[in-house]
Amino acid sequence: MQAFRRETGVVAPLDRVDVDTDQIIPKQFLKRIERTGFGQFAFYDWRFREDGSLNPEFELNLPAYREASILVSGRNFGSGSSREHAPWALQDMGFKAVIAPSFADIFFNNCFKNGVLPVVLPEQTVNELLARAKERPGYKVTVDLEAQTVSDEEGPVAGFEVDPFRKHLLLNGLDDIGLTLEHGDAIARYEEAMPARLRGLTIAAVR
Amino acid sequence: MPKTLFDKIWNAHVVHEQPGQPALLYIDLHLVHEVTSPQAFDGLRMAGRSVRRPDLTVATADHNVPTTVGRAHLPLEDEVAKAQLDALSRNCAEFGIPLYDMNHARQGIVHVIGPELGLTQPGMTIVCGDSHTSTHGALGALAFGIGTSEVEHVLATQTLQQARPKTMEVRCTGQLPRGVTAKDLILGIIGKIGIGGAAGHVIEYTGEVIRSLSMEGRMTVCNMSIEGGGRAGMIAPDRTTIDYLRGRAHAPKGADFERVAAEWLTLASDPGATYDTLVEIAAADLVPHVTWGTNPGMVVPVNGRVPRAEEAASSGDRRAYERAFEYMALEPGQPVQQIKLDRVFIGSCTNGRIEDLRAAAAIARGRRVASTVRAMVVPGSMLVRQQAEREGLDKVFAEAGFEWREAGCSMCLGMNPDILSPGERCASTSNRNFEGRQGKGGRTHLCSPAMAAAAAIEGHFVDVRSWS
Ligand code: SF4
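^ thats the input. predicted complex w/ iron/sulfur cluster below
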């Protein structure tokens, strides 16, 4: 996995609540069997008009936000489906961190697995960031995972909480499958002692 | 200390734990489908890893498959979908995973076939790369959706790193009034707690209402736990659970079954066990529900009205309401029963089971779908389809003018050719009414199977309680 330490970048304001994964990456693009190349389809129905041209009304289409690497949005970001294509698409679009007052659980988890940092900040702080990014297109912040802070040119904006274990994995870009496999013996012991109810399971036999 | 159903299952599955780290949780059953698995299998191959327990893994093809009758003999026209279905077959063959492919007699939506085949059993931990894995909790399992990286993790290790979630009790007291279904109950719960209301929590549904629901109804409720933001939904196993599982293909047989069934009954939460959060629902107050907006929390009684922007709880919600009015082409304050429909979809992992089809058929029997409506019934599995045909439900639907199709996710998310055209309005028994969910520009209203069938016949929403 890609490591995340700190990122300084333009803030893209997506001032909506409950942005769901169906919007982040619509279903017609989930048929691809690769992990890459989803950025071109991110927010597809909002970003493009019927004829395939850019929709000038969609906030992220402003030229000033094209190079943005930090997305800020309203509460319950990433609700809905478990599709990991959502963080893949955001990452491929250039986003390294997403800031919101709250996130849906599976999306939040999926971000960490892909080196995208989801940052929870109080609603009021998020609203301030949204306002600054809208008033001053090109407004930049630095998200520092090590220090657990968000700051801008003028100084600190806010600190944030992050689970220490997740932080450790992300700072070092560690592969959690590799870590789990270090507990191979414990897994094998668990399997040996597995309760009898699981021996009633005969998946392979029924065809 | 008294323990909850969740505590008991969680504790029994911790393989390894150390302070400051998530627990390593053993996974008893891993369900796989074509959309969220190809990248996981690629990851395994790239790292030279194998599937640790192909014998605890089962795959089905459901999201992409066409539901056209006779599909086994038709060419699959969507090349990209075909590539994904082929990838699933190849991966299952390579790693030794049993697959219920498109042409299998037991194929169906992953969350329908798990319980139906008796793969899903009380006390298990179950995961799938799909958020509606919460459905399986209806049988007293701890079941939740995961992303593709975690699918790869489970394939490689049969475990998951998980932080212990919080617990929420949703206590449903009283009796459901006539004409009010499990779907209305869960829509009512989501309307009350909001779509992020159960974030970080595993929900346990308790109370007389839950005890009196059939297994199908319980699955409908647990299915939509995720629409309330919940990590999982669960219901303690009881006689209903045991009677449902007895004789199912993968369930234990004979004396073995009776022995495990006795163990299952001990999983119920102990008296006095506590939860982090409590929500109380009085069933007597519930009515049939219809969603008006673009998320499942935007829901009102069928005899109610589309809300006005002023009724929104915050400025963020207010803007969301305004966007939803526009997207859904609805007037604030408009009576729900005036909403006219172009399409009706009966199916999905929420309401594509036999009981759902019976409820819809009971409304459709001897009536006709309105000439302005195209209605389809997509059974949740091929076994549901066969059962419905044995009961003659296919004929009831056909005579009433509903299309009778083969099993799959179909218009629940429209990855296959079953989609809404821009601007089309649909009454759907599925679980999500997000913008574009059923097709770009399509407008979805969620409701129960009986409500959807009645809407198909009248051409607009009606209160099924006022039907004979
Ligand atoms: S029926 Fe719909 S919600 Fe259920 S698994 Fe299929 S796509 Fe997902």
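The two ends of chain A are 38 Å apart (CA to CA).
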